[in-house]
């Protein structure tokens, strides 16, 4: 037998022709089945979309069925021959955990392979108490929501930035200098005994929002103001993990001092409006900052999230939408809506990404 036939491609765009990379091809098939949902896909459709040979797809799907990851989803409509079997992902076969660290609270979720939240737990958190206390809080939260029947595929942790997502190390978080250089990912992986992915809370929000291959910006309004970028279907972090420092763009040269050291930043202006109970004013500031970003990147969507937005969703959606419409340089301004997922869900999505062959 030609070894390349086991998992080899026919020239399509996705599969890999080396048995050593069998895991890549398995992930490719799982990702397609995840996207297909409960209706599933046939082996022929999987072969067409991956470029793998039908023989390779049959071997891969047999392996995945034996592992409990894939099951039958019925039959394709007959076209005259024997109806072909459809296959679907089994969402409950594995799980992942996502954790959001805010400056004053923690949220943890367990999700299945479809990204659906199965359990959630929220607790107060003092991020300023330092790394040791926060690590203990994360370990307790993960153990509380994880499935006792088996370990999670991974744990995603969303934290305030700046941070180096490649190294898993915190930067000089505004207002919390004691975190600078702390290897949070390494410490948590050692304590939890599971793979850990660390990213900024805003990047986790962008990852969770999805929306295929389009471009969007996720704006998070909570104890701070930040944004995550999803460009061409992928989270964009920048060469130094510094992309998305949305809240520290200066909107007023003579404005009030910001904790970052500048004056008139969008964050300090927005949070001052929130403190006054002026949701409309805060939304207008977010809209002005978002309009600057839209003018630079020409994104398709602006998604809003965070506890401040959740407290006044209509005010923020309508306020940001009005500013973008008034400042749009094109006939059709980007769509504005609430994010469909939480940051903790987005963190769990980051933990699932390697399982589905995504970055």
Give a verbal description of the structure.
With 359 residues, the chain is α/β, with parallel strands linked by helices. It has three domains: 4-92, Orthogonal Bundle (Arc Repressor Mutant, subunit A); 94-204, 2-Layer Sandwich (Nucleotidyltransferase, domain 5); 211-343, Nucleotidyltransferase, domain 5 (2-Layer Sandwich), CATH 3.30.420. Helix content is 37%, strand content 21%. The strands form four sheets. Strands 6-5-4-7-10 form a five-stranded mixed sheet. A hairpin with a 4-residue loop joins strand 8 (163-164) and strand 9 (169-170). The chain starts with a helix and ends in a 7-residue tail after the last helix.
Could you write a compact summary of the structure shown?
With 359 residues, the protein is α/β, with parallel strands linked by helices.
């Amino acid at each position: 037998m030609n070894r390349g036939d086991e998992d080899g491609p026919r020239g399509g765009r996705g599969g890999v022709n080396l048995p050593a990379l069998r895991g890549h091809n398995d992930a490719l098939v799982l990702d397609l089945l995840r996207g297909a949902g409960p209706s599933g896909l046939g082996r022929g459709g999987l072969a067409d979309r991956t470029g793998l040979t039908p023989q390779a797809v049959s071997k891969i799907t047999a392996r995945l069925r034996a592992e409990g990851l894939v099951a039958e989803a019925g039959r394709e409509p007959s076209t005259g021959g024997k109806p072909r079997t459809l296959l679907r992902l089994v969402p409950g076969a594995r799980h992942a955990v996502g954790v959001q660290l805010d400056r004053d609270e923690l949220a943890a979720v367990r999700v299945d392979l479809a990204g659906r939240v199965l359990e959630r737990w929220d607790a107060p958190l003092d991020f300023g108490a330092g790394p040791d206390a926060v690590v203990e809080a994360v370990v307790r939260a993960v153990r509380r929501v994880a499935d006792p029947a088996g370990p999670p595929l991974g744990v995603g942790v969303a934290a305030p930035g700046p941070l180096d997502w490649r190294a898993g190390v915190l930067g000089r978080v505004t207002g919390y200098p004691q975190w600078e250089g702390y290897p949070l990912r390494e410490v948590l992986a050692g304590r939890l005994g599971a793979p850990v992915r660390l990213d900024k809370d805003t990047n986790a929000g962008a990852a969770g929002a999805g929306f295929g291959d389009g471009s969007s910006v996720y704006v998070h309004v909570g104890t701070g103001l930040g944004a995550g970028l999803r460009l061409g279907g992928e989270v964009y972090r920048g060469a130094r993990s510094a992309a998305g420092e949305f809240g520290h763009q200066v909107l007023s040269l003579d404005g009030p001092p910001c904790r970052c050291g500048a004056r008139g930043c969008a964050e300090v202006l927005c949070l001052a409006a929130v403190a006054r109970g002026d949701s409309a004013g805060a939304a207008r500031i977010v809209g002005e900052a978002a309009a600057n970003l839209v003018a630079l990147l020409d994104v398709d969507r602006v998604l809003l999230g965070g506890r401040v937005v959740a407290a006044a969703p209509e005010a923020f959606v309508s306020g940001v939408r009005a500013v973008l419409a008034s400042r749009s340089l094109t006939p059709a301004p980007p769509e504005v809506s609430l994010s469909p997922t939480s940051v903790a869900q987005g963190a769990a999505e980051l933990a699932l990404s390697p399982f589905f062959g995504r970055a």
